[in-house]
Amino acid sequence: MLHPTPGGLYCPMGDFYVDPVRPVGRALITHGHSDHARSGHSHVLATRQTLDIMAIRYGVDFAGSSQAAGFGETVDVNGISVRFHPAGHVLGSAQIEIEKDGTRIVVSGDYKRGVDPTCASFEPVPCDVFITEATFGLPVFHHPPPSGEIEKLLTSLRQFPERSHLIGAYALGKAQRVISLIRRGGYDQPIYIHGSLAKLCDYYESQGVDLGELRPATTEDKKSGSLKGAVVIGPPSAFNDRWARRFEDPLPIFASGWMMVRQRAKQRGVELPLVISDHCDWPELLDTIREVGPQEVWVTHGREEALVRWCELSGIAARPLHLVGYEDEGD
Ligand SMILES: [Zn+2]
Questions:
Q1: CA 21 – ligand 1 centroid, Å
Q2: What spacing in Å lies between the alpha carbon of 59 and ligand 1's midpoint?
Q3: pLDDT tops 90 at residue 249
Q4: What is the per-residue pLDDT across 190-232, written as a single tens digit (0 to 9) for each?
Q5: What pLDDT is stored for residue 322 in this prediction?
Q6: d(CA 247, CA 224)
Q7: 328 alpha carbon to ligand 1 midpoint, in Å?
Q8: CA pair distance 19, 38, nearest whole angstrom
Q9: So what's the pLDDT on residue 155?
Q10: Predicted model pTM
Q11: What spacing in Å lies between the alpha carbon of 107 and ligand 1's midpoint?
């Protein structure tokens, strides 16, 4: 019904791939991150929001044709019943349930369990085979509540009112979630965004996610005196290039699940690491597996061995798939 191939998970009965890493005839796509959603497929089945996001990122001709699947709606794909369910990862993100003759497989894509007002919350779907990632699949990974991380940022803004606070956050999902969290923390000043975030922020707003007043961080005068003490958000790569040098005495910040690894923060020159992740931490992975109650767990990528071992010790058959090409764009 489903097996790993070099192109990604393939369903021979339905002749489709899930999140293929190379162009295929028929692709089912869990979410818009570039390692899962690639352009050039003949046909794409995904949620309306994921299709919209792909069109924003790749252009309207990102696939030969496309079809939108609503959450919970059954779509017949060559005799296989397919249903999309919310994954709580980024706007539009879905788990994909595949069913034939009473056997049910759930491909969870990337997902998280913590509350995130910028997307629909993960829904556990009982299944026979649960396919999960394990980006943070080690017992050392515990992500703190994001509200506490944002409090660190707000404290820093009070302590260093002269310094521009430059936050590195991935363009799809993380940036909008961080902005939304900052607003919930009570910060109502304009937030300055790198040009590459504008279209996706506009799209989130159009889908009912309130981000408050956003201004381009690129139109201010070169000396950027007016951005002293401001919050500026851009993709992590932007802070390595000339764009970042316009800010005087900037305070480098990075919002990522990896920021709980001090060494990673140091390597990047991050002064204020914010541990904000759009993936499950270790306890959330285990809780989810217990909740969906599968007979078998397949682990696609990440720290696969520890999670496979935990499943086996818990009496659940498990295997690592060692899928390649998934680079955690939105970690
Ligand atoms: Zn992702």
A1: 13
A2: 20
A3: no
A4: 999 999 999 999 999 999 999 999 999 975 555 545 688 999 9
A5: 87
A6: 6
A7: 6
A8: 8
A9: 98
A10: 0.94
A11: 13
> Which backbone phi and psi does 240 adopt, to 5 degrees?
-95, -10
Compute the average pLDDT of residues 105-130: 97
CB-CB contact of 254 with 188 (8 Å): no
Alpha carbons 252 and 225: distance in angstroms, whole number: 17
Phi, psi of 183 (to 5 degrees): -65, -45
Cβ atoms < 10 Å from Cβ of 216: 12
What are the tokens at 120? 């629909």
By DSSP bridging, strand 8-11 and strand 3-5 are: antiparallel
Contact assessment for residue 300 and residue 279, using Cβ atoms and an 8 Å cutoff = no
User: DSSP state, 71?
Assistant: B
Ligand 1 centre and the CA of 162: distance in Å? 35
Residue 226 Cα, ligand 1 centroid: separation in angstroms?
A: 34
pLDDT value of residue 177: 98
User: Biggest alpha carbon distance in the chain?
Assistant: 66
- Ligand 1 geometric centre to CA of 263 (Å): 23
53 Cα: distance to centroid of ligand 1 (angstroms): 13
Give start and end residues of each alpha helix (H) in the chain. Answer: 48-58, 146-159, 174-184, 198-206, 262-267, 282-292, 304-313
Q: List C-alpha distances in Å: 3 to 10, 13, 28, 202, 281.
A: 5, 11, 14, 38, 26
Measured between its terminal Cα atoms, the distance across the chain in Å is 29
Stretch 243-248: mean pLDDT: 78
Distance CA 290, CA 307 (A): 13
**SS3 call for 85:** strand
- 8 A C-beta contact, residue 254 and residue 168: yes
Coil vs helix vs strand at 142: coil
Residue 323 confidence (pLDDT): 87
Contact 82, 95 (CB under 8 A): no
What CA–CA distance (Å, rounded) separates 8 from 316? 24
Model pLDDT, residue 159? 97
Collect all residues with Cβ–Cβ distance below 8 Å to 149 and sequence separation of at least 6.
Answer: 181, 255, 274, 275, 276
